[in-house]
Design goal:
This protein has about 190 residues and is mainly alpha-helical. It is built from 9 helices and no strands. The protein is elongated, with a radius of gyration of 19 Å.
Length: about 190
């Protein structure tokens, strides 16, 4: 016998909403996806979505957080023995499919604390991975390496590569180049 909707645990219903929202945001973009469509796709009454998420920005931020968490789990499973540069490049490459959503995040940054927080979490992951690369090669303690500048350039490359522009190479390729260039310059001769 199918379960009554009241019997479905909150976490399961939230997961259904996030899965539906992810599909709709990818298919229609942030602006094109409507809360009523997300509700319908998840089998939730239209107004009831607001029991789970306060706004479209909140569900959008949760989709982006979920995407990053999922990717981090996958990287730890698939690349457990790989170095941080390989994990960073693979993660950015895998998440390339979410590029339009990252662009939409930029549109929403001035309007939503939830989206700003999700965006900062994503950039924090990139910075953390850059720090791991530098630490692996002991460059984090090298006084000749401006670690903050390397972090800032990696973030700027990533953010710049994700603006609507078909002329850019993928961010993961440019960040690999950046990090390998920094590492090559610091190797003893």
């Amino acid at each position: 016998m199918p379960r009554n909707r009241q019997q479905i645990p909150r976490e399961e219903r939230t997961g259904d909403l996030l899965a539906a929202a992810t599909e709709l945001f990818l298919a229609k973009g942030y602006a094109g996806a409507r809360m009523a469509e997300i509700s319908a796709a998840a089998g939730v009454a239209s107004g009831n979505i607001y029991w789970y998420f306060d706004s479209k920005d909140d569900i959008f931020a949760a989709v982006m957080d979920r995407m990053l968490s999922r990717e981090i789990r996958i990287l730890h499973q698939d690349l457990a023995g790989a170095g941080p540069l390989s994990r960073l490049v693979r993660g950015l490459s895998d998440m390339r499919q979410y590029r339009p959503l990252h662009q939409a995040m930029h549109d929403r940054l001035p309007h939503s604390e939830a989206v700003r927080t999700a965006h900062n979490t994503f950039l924090g992951w990139i910075v953390g991975m850059v720090d791991e690369v530098l630490a692996e090669h002991r460059l984090d303690a090298d006084p000749d390496v401006d670690v903050a500048l390397v972090r800032d350039v990696a973030v700027a490359v990533f953010e710049g590569a994700n603006v609507p522009n078909d002329l850019n190479r993928p961010a993961h390729e440019m960040i690999r180049f950046l990090m390998e260039s920094v590492l090559r310059q610091r190797r003893p001769v």
